[in-house]
Amino acid sequence: MLKRFWLFAAVFFALFAAGCAPPWTVIKQAEPNPFAGKKEFVVLPIDYEGLMVGNKTEAEYLGEKKDKTVDRFEQDKVDMNDLFTTNLQAVAKDEGIDVDVAAGEVKTFVIKPHIGFMEPGFYAVVASAPSEVVLRLKIEDKDGKVLDEIEIKHQTPPSNWGNVAAGSRYRQDAEWIGRVAGRYLTTRVYPDD
């Protein structure tokens, strides 16, 4: 209970600092809340279908890159999935919510993350632009009916302290988005806290 208090205190102060707006946008939210008191979920790997990188399709973006850069980009996506999932699970676990990686037949609620937009940004000594990742998260019942859908965006500005490369900034975006997804899930499982 003490962990939950501190989590919600942190969320409260973050919301207060952000003008009381949560760090996600609700697209759809089932009512009555089907997740209240439910503590078992599964999460699928991030789906990148239809990914836009800046103003280009993923194929167009990668078509302009060398093999080494293409390989790094593919590894970035794998690492982003791992960081998103790990952070989502950690926040949920702190609240007594089990989020397992989906395997086999699904008998519970399914968390489906999809990244449709990534902006690599850039870094130069005289100018820079942040990375940006936009993730749509759907929570479905075991039959595939979408119950909740939210969008989470995050930007990481480049700096000369180790996150100049887009891949390292994408990883920071994925960590943050995973924690926010875990907080959203917590608000739905414990709506009265």
Radius of gyration (Å): 17 Å
Taking the alpha carbons of the first and last residues, their distance comes to 10 Å
Query: Percentage of helical residues?
Result: 25-40%
The top-level CATH class is: Alpha Beta
- What is the approximate shape? globular
What structural class should be given to the helix and strand makeup? alpha/beta
Order of helices and strands: HEEEEHHEEEEEEH
Low-confidence sequence ranges: 5-12
The CATH topology label is Double Stranded RNA Binding Domain
Task: Please indicate the count of domains.
Answer: 1
Write down the overall mean pLDDT. 88
**Can you name the CATH architecture?**
2-Layer Sandwich
Number of helices: 4
As a percent range, the share of strand residues is 25-35%
Number of strands: 10
Largest sheet: 8 strands, mixed
Could you characterize what this model shows?
Helix 3 packs parallel to helix 4. The protein is globular, with a radius of gyration of 17 Å. The chain contains four helices and ten strands. It has 193 residues and is an alpha/beta fold. The strands form two sheets. Strands 1, 2, 3, 4, 5, 6, 9 and 10 form an eight-stranded mixed sheet that branches. The N and C termini lie close together (10 Å).
